[in-house]
Amino acid sequence: SRKFTVAAAQLGPIAKEEPRNSAVARLCAMMREAKARGAALVVFPELALTTFFPRWFIEAGPELDQWFETEMPNDATAPLFTLAKQLGIGFHLGYAELTPDGHHYNTAILVGPDGEIAGKYRKIHLPGHWENEEWRPFQHLEKRYFEKGDLGWPVFDMLGGKLGMCICNDRRWPETWRVLGLGGAELVCLGYNTPIHFAPAPEHDHLQYFHNELSVMAGCYQNGTWGVAVAKAGLEEGSVLIGGSVIVAPTGEIVAKASTSGDEVICAEVDLDRCAEIRANVFNFEEHREPQDYLPITAP
Ligand code: ING
């Protein structure tokens, strides 16, 4: 067996004016709690260093770039990397990345217990819209502020297994999970900032928690992988973000779920060998998958 304890460190709201060192202090407190509870890995949310700024229309330039990190680690996040090395715990962190050549990504990294970055992912499915849309109670301008990720969905050797990442809206797309599954992912880390109100279809607002669980449970089951999905939650600058962070088994079962909308650490023991229960049987890709038939047939 390849057992270890994983922690999902759900964040409550981060205020617009909250400085990064305040958010990092909250992350460090939860990293300590995760370690105290025996975790080898702690998963933090998407865009975990700042408020969810795509909810506002912001002109390109310094006012927008203030929300991005130009290097990682940096002065604000160094304490987190130092603590991880000191405690000997790995972590996943989502943040807004501004590259030296001026590219903007919604990014996540995996950092080993040695405090070194082991892997990076840049969000591919960017939801929302490009222009300020006055009819909306709040904006969702990820398509305006981020470029589509250019790294694919890589899988990294870590903690004795194969770990992958995706980010928020990615989890809704079966292709995300299948590409990770085909890459051999045994545990997928993802963060999310999901408003309870989806302006184009408000009749679905009451389904946001359900759709979160549905997406992660299906993705895990249909690819025989563990999943750790972690929210930035709560009433953040007037916008309610769902909580509902979950740890899901390769069977699709939820093995741990957050019960608040604030900073909350949930833990579960994962056994990466359990992926074989699914991958050697019902979803044995080599034996049962028929990719040559996966072509949309239009009616004659
Ligand atoms: N947030 C939301 C998400 O995909 C969204 C956007 C909400 C899309 C509800 C569709 C329905 O969870 C991010 N950051 O992707």
From TrEMBL:
Family annotation (InterPro entries): Aliph_Amidase/BUP, C-N_Hydrolase, C-N_Hydrolase_sf
Q: Per the record, a Pfam family?
A: CN_hydrolase
Give the range the annotation lists for the signal sequence: none
Parts of the chain that traverse the membrane: none
Q: What positions does the domain CN hydrolase occupy?
A: 4-272
Asked whether the UniProt record includes Protease among its keywords, one would answer no
Q: Which PANTHER family match?
A: NITRILASE C965.09-RELATED (PTHR43674:SF12)
Q: Which named protein is this?
A: N-carbamoyl-D-amino-acid hydrolase
Gene Ontology MF annotations: hydrolase activity
- The question of whether Hydrolase is a record keyword is answered with yes
**Record keywords, A-Z:** Hydrolase
